[in-house]
Amino acid sequence: MTSTPGAALATATSASGATSEGGAPLAATGSGRVWPTDPAGFTTARMQAIGHSFEGHALMQVPALAALAKRLFPTKQCRFIKPGATQTSEFDHDSADSAGRSIDEVFARIEEPGSWIALYNVETDPQYRGFLDEVAASVRALVEREEPGMYQVGGFIFVSAPPSVTPFHIDREHNFWLQVRGHKVMSVFDHCDTELVPAADRERFILYGNNVGLRQPGHLQRARDFRVGPGDGVYFPSTSPHMTRCEPGWARPGDGVSISIGVVFYTSATKRHAYVHACNEALRRRGLQPRPPGEVAWLDRLKAPLGRALVDLGRRRGYKPTPSFL
To answer: What is the pTM of this model?
Structure first.
């Protein structure tokens, strides 16, 4: 087996053909943007379809991603899903391929059915930090008209071939999720659905990072399915449960890979809500049933400083806050 990405995929480069010293394509700057398909109805509090023009970006092509994966692998930022995973499985993944393959071999065989690799926290790479800044710049005014203080922009890239899935899970950050290549179904659930994910589970996730599983498989019909191709995407707010599936039918030799990126970020509101979650978790341990953040503004204003005090006290006692509080 060849140790470099297949020839059909390796031809996917930027129009300029420019490369860095290490051979990876250089990012174009200022050439892409993200927009809501319903600009008048956009709100950071609700999932909705978006469009984007980053599908041709040099850094989102397979050869550049293969080079990125080699840079990230030593720091365990490449993740490989467990074989046989379904959308309702625990989101269980490892920092090494289950078959022991190198990054070169993984990308050489990336079109094989069921292939799946995720690249985590790509903002740690200088080139991709610039790409994420470009995406964030195109949405900052849209976000900050409602939630000022957009910060800590990060990125998670998923490269897969059908049939494959990303199981049900939630994230702490808001997410502009962009489909760059291939086709996928993104299923998103209401972030306020406490039957699907109980409030106590969300609180533990915000505070301790314990991700949640799908307790009620019968609730799958509650998802809104977004069928996306290159140039499509989805925005969804913090703690929105979501999962994906990459279905057979569209893939062709040389064009059988799905590439998507979640561009994630926090705001002053997500941090305030995190402190409300911290207060609520303490109240719940005392037998109360507190109202979730975002439901009653005046209660949030009371609980947020209490939550901050609890987190600060915990930090002095050895608690390591999750990124929600940083």
So the answer is: 0.89
